[in-house]
Design brief:
single chain; about 220 residues; mainly beta; 12 strands
Length: about 220
């Protein structure tokens, strides 16, 4: 029997090497796939996988009602009265006046290209000559994106804001800061819904808010 012992030694050595190798793959040396969850969580400041138009739906017939505080005209309604291609016209009624706005959407921005301060007859302005160029939302949709609108500056402050409104609770809300010389406005947008809140704050700390009450 002794003459077989030398032949068994290499076998024992191979088993020991395999056991040692297995022990080295443990908690101290995780496999790449074990850290995948950390990669998928993402950075809240990085660009979201949505376009500006996703936060500003313009389907004809859509309506929004906002409940206001701080001003008699802070309560208002919006309705998409005309839509064609990448343009849509919204009628806004605050109880004191009715205005008309035409918005144009692209992969890069949502822009108000036409505005009529008083429009009571539901006239279609979709194909009228542009008299405005107010960029409401702009890509890339990430914290820090900033653009000038002439009399104000707009900036994306948050991509994951939480908001409570009369219409319900909203998560992953886009928060925009609009800075004027004598006031600041914060607008909050939810993808698939649109604007869910607007807050006006003057330099004297006078506040007016309009919060979404109902949308269809």
């Amino acid at each position: 029997m002794r003459k077989y012992i030398p032949k068994l030694i290499p076998v024992f050595l191979l088993i020991i090497l395999l056991i040692t190798a297995c022990n080295q793959v443990g908690p101290e040396n995780p496999k790449p796939e074990e850290d995948q969850s950390q990669v998928e969580e993402g950075d809240p400041e990085k660009e979201v996988g949505l376009k500006p138009e996703d936060y500003f739906p313009l389907t004809q017939g859509s309506t929004w009602r906002y409940l206001g505080e701080g001003n008699e005209y802070a309560t208002f309604t919006r309705e998409v009265v005309f839509a064609e291609g990448n343009r849509a016209q919204i009628k806004e009624d605050n109880g004191g006046t009715v205005s008309a706005s035409v918005f144009e959407t692209t992969d890069e921005a949502v822009t108000r290209i036409f505005f009529q301060g008083e429009s009571y007859e539901n006239e279609n302005y979709l194909n009228d000559e542009s008299n405005d160029n107010l960029v409401i939302l702009k890509a890339p949709l990430q914290v820090g994106t900033k653009w000038d609108t002439g009399d104000s500056t707009r900036e994306i402050l948050d991509l994951n804001a939480s908001l409570n409104t009369p219409a319900g609770d909203f998560e992953k809300v886009l928060k925009i800061k609009i800075t004027f010389p004598d006031s600041t406005i914060y607008e909050y947008y939810k993808d698939g819904v649109g604007m869910v809140k607007r807050e006006y704050i003057s330099n004297e700390d006078y506040r007016v808010t309009s919060s979404l009450e109902k949308y269809e």
